[in-house]
Amino acid sequence: MRVDVRALGACNRLAEQGAKQAAGALSDLTGTDLAVEVTGASVASGQDLAESFAGRESIGVSVGLRGGLDGEAVLAFDAVNADALLSLLPGGQSMERSAVTEVGNIALGGFLDGWANYLGKAIDMSPPRYFEADGAAVLPDGALAGDGVFLFESRLDATTTDLDFSIYMLPDSGPFRDLIVGKTAPAAAAGDAPGAAANDGTTSTAVPYESLSTFSSLAKEGSANAADNIAMMTGLETSVDVSRLRFVPLADVPAEVGTEPHAGTVFELQGQPSGYLAILFEESSAAAVADAMLPMEPDEPLGDMAENALCELGNVMTSGFIDGWANVLGTTITHSPPEFVHDIGASTISPLVAKLSERQDYGFVIDTAIRTEGIQARCDVYALPDERELARALDRLSEP
Amino acid sequence: MTRSLSDDRPDDPADRTGSDAVADAEPAAVTGGPSADDRGRIKVGVGELAVTSEDATLTTSGLGSCVAVALVDDRAGVRGLLHAMLPAGEGRTTAASRPAKYVDTGVDTLIAAIDDAGGDPRRLEARVAGGAEMLDLTDAVGPRNVERVGEVLDAAGVPIVASDVGDTVGRTVRFGPDGRLVVRAADGFERAI
């Protein structure tokens, strides 16, 4: 199967529109304000998914889909947020199951409207099923089988309360696959249809699905290398919390990084693919990690000494990260010297996103969270490869 | 339950009326409209714009090299805010691009949306923030954004009455009913322009 990158973009947009409708429906129902923070399609093997969901408990609702789409859609809340959710719902705690079921039904209905409209076919939803699930059991049936799946995930954020939740949909059935490989002719005359995109004079890029799945696993190895390098330089034990390859609207990336102050390093990557890599710590984490690397406590928490330490750390992490890519892609990738950054996280990453956005609206983003044991520190690595160059390299990978 | 085939796409900006508290003011093919909350705060994301003719405060956060353009027609009480990422979309916009991604198409779309909401493009005043040179790695995308804002507003006959641009600092802005743009820098320093 070859995945059409533009078709994937169009699907992502549908998921985003659907998530906005779901957020609107929930806002009306709960009287709280919800905004869609990010919608992406993640590419992961069943095993990787199982690991990334380990230890998470969810409550939510699933519905079966027939008609325009076959499969299953799931709306899930982190169980730790369940009380916050219930306090907002009519009936509250006493109505736990039915209240959550009703919320899920309304939100998923809103989510699917856009897809039905786009496909020009009605989508039948089976009655909603309430569930409580450990780990990856929350995901739609079939997510953990096979070598890899696309999982559309939207994260919604309540602006005034702690109430994030996710919507997952798994394109493992025929019609959904056809959408992603660009086979489905646009039902709506809208300009964002995959078929219409070729009219703007650019050619569409198709990526072999198997290569994407392979690359996703390798990105994970790169993350493990980067984490090991932190351990080596700081003496702190590290673990990779999350590592995922996702396809997202680039404009959403700054919001995902957030408005908290961050410190860290950014790099330009040269080779196949080129792109950017950002290693960002929240301020307290940056100070703690720098402190662990320095022989004595620095005069200021994030002064020159800390800056040097973080640059040195960034260098070895980046090498660890991209060596894995280069090995598997059979290409050479080099990186620029580190540039130290210390500012609002979203502001720091915005010029990188802007540069890539000159050529593309959507991009593959590898995001990785690395946590250290002993001291509370966490860093996020964002790798932003050029879409066309990555697609070309992946294409070569699939050649015999 | 069957999901219907109703048209759920955003309205065409031309259909909007001045009484709308929120006008994401983007053509039908564009998603990513801002969201409002009940305290009258409208968040404008990267590559988005919003217009209000009511008391809502328009906000956008995490401006780095991106630029925020705030336009107001005081007499009509109509305000709009754009968060653009790149200078020029001419000839480069695709069906998938948001017009608000670019300064030139974004400013034009914003002025049209303000017009639709009951504002008069001839009475507009502009306030501009952002366009920092955050990184040496990326070739002056911030300053190029600011320069383009000047050109596009000049061509549209909209005067820039105040700006807080350039430097190497991230910014967050709020555009309230008084027509002032409150700019908060990463170090917490805040000023109204």
Automatic annotation (TrEMBL), chain A:
One of its GO terms (molecular function) is hydrolase activity. The keyword Transmembrane does not apply. It comes from the Archaea. Pfam families: CheC. Keywords: Chemotaxis, Hydrolase. The keyword Protease does not apply. GO terms for biological process: chemotaxis. Residues 95-129, 305-341 form the CheC-like protein domain. This is CheC, inhibitor of MCP methylation. It comes from Halorubrum tebenquichense DSM 14210.
UniProtKB/TrEMBL annotation, chain B:
One of its GO terms (molecular function) is protein-glutamine glutaminase activity. Its EC number is 3.5.1.44. It holds the Pfam family CheD. It is an enzyme of class 3 (hydrolase). It comes from the Archaea. One of its GO terms (biological process) is chemotaxis. This is Probable chemoreceptor glutamine deamidase CheD. The lineage of its organism: Archaea, Methanobacteriati, Methanobacteriota, Stenosarchaea group, Halobacteria.
